[in-house]
Each structure stands twice: as C-alpha cells, then as structure tokens.
Design a protein that fits this description.
Layout lengths: L1 H57 L1 H13 L5 H15 L6 E6 L4 E6 L12 H12 L5 E2 L3 E3 L2 E12 L2 E10 H9 L7 E7 L19 E9 L2 E9 L12 H97 L8 H33 L4 E4 H11 L1 H6 L2 E5 L6 E4 L1 H19 L6 E10 L3 E8 L6 H6 L17 H12 L3 E7 L3 E9 L9
Parallel strand pairs: 11-13
Antiparallel strand pairs: 1-2, 1-6, 3-5, 4-5, 5-6, 7-9, 8-9, 10-12, 13-14, 14-16, 15-16
Helix pairs in contact: 1-5, 1-6, 2-3, 6-7, 7-10, 8-10, 10-12
C-alpha cells in the first residue's frame, strides 16, 4: 500500500513537473517575446528623442539667417525683418509659428517684431526670454538657447544672438512653440502605443510635451536625458504593447503548451505502466505474507482484549459482591435508625419525657443521615461497577458525573479542608463509559489532595470542560499546589512509579488513568506543570463514540 501510494505520488510529481516545466518554458517564451518588443520599442523611443533634438537644432538656422541680415546691413527696418521672415519660411516650407523680434538694449524693449509674437511692448517678458537677452548682450555674438518654458499653458523654445542695428546694440530673438517641433517628429506614431513626457531641470514638474496619455496601462517605462543648447531634457516614454505595431503576435506559446502537455502525458503513461506492473508483481508476492501477518496480529489483539475484558469482569464482580455485602448491614442500620427515630417521637409524646430524649433524637438523626450517605455511596459504587463491565456507553451530562465523583470524595475533601469546584456546562452531554471516566477523575482528584498540597493545610482543585473541534471534549483537572519536577513529568505514567515510596503509594494510579483514557475513552491525556505554581491534567476524548460497543 505504501509503495502504491509512493508510485502514485511519483506519477503525480512527474505530471506536475512536466506541467511546471511547460509553464516555465511558456513563460520564458512569452517573456522573451515581451523583451524583444521592449527592446524595439525603447530603440524607437530613443531614435525619436534624438530626432526631436535634431529638429530643435535645425531651428537655429532661421535665427542665424536673420542674424546675417542684420550683420550685413547697416540698418534693418521692421518691414525688412518681416519680409525676410516671410521669404525664409516660404523657401523652407516651414510649418511652425516662429515669432521674431529685435530687442533694443538702450530702450530695453522690442522695436521690431515679426510673426505671432505673443508679448506686447508694454508687457513684462517671461524670465527665460529676459535671460536669453541678457546672455546675448553680455556674451557677444554667441547663440544662446534658453531653457524650455511655459506661458499660458503652452511651452516655448527661445533662442537669441547679439546683433547691431543702425549703430545700436541689441539682441535678435526667435520664439518657437515647442509643440510644433514635437508634432513634426511624433505625430504619426505617438498614438501607436507610445506617450511622451518631457521635463527640464529648471521645471521638473512641468510636462512640456502635453500629449494625450495612453488609453491603457503601460507595460514599460523608459527614461532618458539628452542635451540641447547646454540644457538637459528629461524624457519619460510610456510604452503600451497592446496598441504597439511593434508587438508581433505569435503562436509559439500555444505550440509550447501543446508539445509540453503531450510529452508529459506520454512520459507519465509510460512510467505509470512500468510502476503499476511492479505493483501487481509485488502485490502477488506479498499477499500471503500480509494475510499471515494480519491473522497473527488479529489473534494477538483479540487475546489482549479478552484478557482485559476478563480483568474488568472480575473486578466488576468483586465490586458488585462487596457492594452487595455492605448494602445489607447498611440497610439494617438505616432501619434501626428509623425505629430509633420512632421511639424518640413516642418519648416526646409523654408528659414528662426523659432528659436523654434530645440526645437520642440527635443520635437518631446523625445515624439516619450517615447511613443514607453510605447507601448513596454504595448505590454510586454499584453503578460504577455495572458501567465498568457494561459493553454499552452511557449518554449523560458530564457535570452530573463530576458531581458524583466529588460526592464520593467528600469525606477526604472535608478532612483536609479542601475545595473542589465543578464549572462544567450542564448542557454538555457525552457518550462515555461513566464508571471508567469516574475512575479517572477520582484518581486525579486524589492525586491533587495527596501530592499537590502535601505540605499545605488547605487547597483548591478546579474541574472544567470545553467542547473543541466539533466532536471533541477537553476535560481539565487543575490544582494550584507544588507542581512537578520535569523528571517526574516524564515518568508519571510508568507503572509502579511513585514519589511516595514507603508511604502507601503503589505507583499504579496514573498508569491506570492513562490506560483508561487511551483504551476505553479512545482519547489522550496531557499534563502541564510548573513547580510551586500547580499542575493541570487535560483529558481529550470524543463526545460521541464511533463504535457503540467496547471491544
């Protein structure tokens, strides 16, 4: 059976390994396909970024051409500037809305403008344009590129160069809408699984690209930085494989799954055929040996149970006999006490009852209560003896059984000024052999009285129970006495082991408890103890038995 289970586990493991390997290869193929797309998409993004920088570099040419006009003429009028501006864009077929202006340094204002120049003479200029003018005036004829800046929600690129006009010092400025340059580069492909954000070092939170974001979540993000005119542009590309033309659908994954499952099933089938053939051979060889072993074990088990039943039956007969022999004299004593009680009542009816009638009445009452208590104990003892030899468990309230055990030990408890509490839920019913469970509780309470509080004049024992795991009951007997040493806990269930050697202890009580819990109650017992703090015994047994007969 174990080998069969091992073979089954081996087949399952082989099947699982094959499927796992197929999944790994499929994942690797899909991952590789994604990486190929990612590399291509990143390469395309970097190409477009460099092309944008190149386009921005080309925007210097109009400024240089117009600067040549100023440097080649003594004086350039505003009409000449506008004509040159129109001719320049007519020849180059440029489509941007570049604005041009000549700034008079002495007057500190624009004297000449051309194109869609957004800043009137009286309006304060944006800071990047002022920086461009200041830089050109202070650095001669060097062309200066200002950082990208935003004005009224639009981004602009400004460039300047120092030129003279009619003997006056000034600077020639061109301002170009940045979006015009960007769209010439990316208008055809930005909506195909790509989106771009551009930030500058000066304005790290301002996106100068202002393009439509992706419709779905990006599968990859690529960052890069490029230099333009001494300024750093930070590019953030969002790449979406779902809408990218660079993504190439492939049936390789389906092919890998088909091949992997097919090969795995064939391998498992072949290996399984070999394994189950071995199982049939081993089963045939071991069948008779197993039958003989089962027969031998069955005989041993039956013999052990028979011996145990005989011992229990003998004990039950002994207890029943003793109980019967005691019940007769106790009954006679109770009848005598009743007769004495009647005599006392007759004496009380006399006109002058003797003085001893009060003592006789107390004696009769004490004798009746004592014989009644003895009768109750004998009745309980008979019930225990009957349950001990019974083949059927009883369905009873656990709290009532605990009360009976406490009642049977009442003399010992009161003699030592001890208290035993029973907090078991009255609604908790169990199906057990009542006599055997009573024996267990009796031993545990007596052990607490004798061992836990050996050096104390008083003490407390708590008995409580909980229902756990549906059909399991956890019955606890706890004291708060001296506790046990670790070496004692290890040997507590050994037969003839006692810590009171020579003082009347036989060392069989806890061994009997263990055997009853294990063999009769079909449960287990656990001990928890700490020196000088106390000991707790936990008995776990089924609430209802799986079998209706004790065999």
């Amino acid at each position: 059976m174990k080998k069969s289970r091992a073979y089954t586990i081996a087949l399952a493991a082989m099947l699982l390994a094959g499927l796992l390997l197929t999944a790994v290869v499929y994942y690797a193929a899909e991952r590789n396909q994604f990486k190929v797309w990612e590399y291509r998409a990143v390469a395309e993004a970097e190409r477009m970024s460099n092309e944008l920088i190149y386009r921005m570099e080309l925007e210097r040419e109009p400024l240089l051409s117009l600067a040549t006009l100023y440097k080649g003429s003594r004086e350039v009028t505003e009409e000449e500037l506008r004509a040159a501006h129109d001719n320049l864009f007519s020849f180059t077929q440029s489509r941007n809305n570049m604005a041009t202006g000549w700034y008079n340094a002495a007057l500190q204002q624009f004297e000449q403008t051309s194109g869609n120049f957004a800043w009137p003479v009286t309006q304060e200029l944006p800071t990047p344009i002022n920086l461009a003018i200041e830089h050109s005036l202070n650095n001669g004829s060097n062309l200066y590129v200002a950082p990208l800046f935003q004005y009224e929600t639009k981004s602009y690129l400004a460039m300047s160069v120092s030129v003279m006009n009619n003997g006056q010092e000034g600077a020639l400025i061109v301002v170009i809408p940045f979006n015009d340059i960007l769209m010439r580069v990316a208008s055809d492909i930005l909506d195909q699984g790509k989106s771009l954000s551009i930030f500058t070092t000066e304005q790290p939170l301002v996106n100068h690209a202002q393009l439509t974001p992706l419709a779905t979540e990006a599968e990859a993000i690529h960052f890069m930085s490029l230099e333009f005119g001494g300024n750093t542009l930070n590019f953030r590309w969002a790449l979406d494989a779902d809408n990218s033309p660079l993504w190439q659908e492939s049936n390789l994954g389906l092919f890998i799954i088909f091949v992997g499952i097919t090969v795995t099933c064939l391998a498992v089938f072949a290996y399984g055929a070999v394994l189950f053939h071995n199982i049939r051979v081993e089963t045939s060889v071991q069948q008779r040996t197993r039958q003989l072993k089962e027969t031998y074990e069955g005989l041993q088990s039956a013999n052990a149970k028979l011996v145990q039943q005989e011992r229990l039956a003998s004990l039950g007969k002994l207890v029943a006999g003793i109980s019967h022999e005691l019940s007769t004299p106790i009954s006679n004593a109770y009848m005598g006490a009743s007769l004495l009680d009647d005599v006392v009542n007759d004496l009380k009816q006399l006109e002058s009852p003797p003085k001893s009638v009060t003592k006789l009445e107390e004696t009769a009452s004490l004798l009746k209560s004592s014989t009644q208590r003895a009768t109750d104990l004998i009745t309980s003892f008979k019930e225990v003896s009957i349950e001990t030899t019974s083949t059927k468990p009883s369905h009873l309230a656990l709290k009532d059984l605990v009360d009976e055990v406490i009642t049977s030990l009442k003399t010992d408890i009161q003699k030592k000024n001890f208290s035993v509490s029973n907090t078991v839920d009255p609604s908790l019913y169990v199906e057990v052999f009542a006599g055997q469970l009573a024996t267990v509780l009796t031993h545990l309470v007596q052990n607490a009285l004798v061992h836990a509080y050996a050096s104390r004049a008083e003490g407390r024992v708590d008995i409580y129970a909980n229902e756990v795991d549906g059909n399991q009951v956890e019955l606890c007997v706890e004291d708060f006495g001296e506790g046990m040493k670790p070496e004692t806990m290890v040997r507590i269930y050994e037969p003839f082991f006692t810590t009171r050697l020579g003082q009347g202890g036989s060392g069989l009580g806890m061994h009997v408890v263990y055997n009853i819990v294990d063999a009769v109650l079909l449960g287990n017992i656990e001990v928890q103890s700490t020196e000088q703090k106390g000991t707790k015994f936990i008995i776990r047994f089924p609430k209802t038995r799986q079998t209706k007969e004790f065999r």
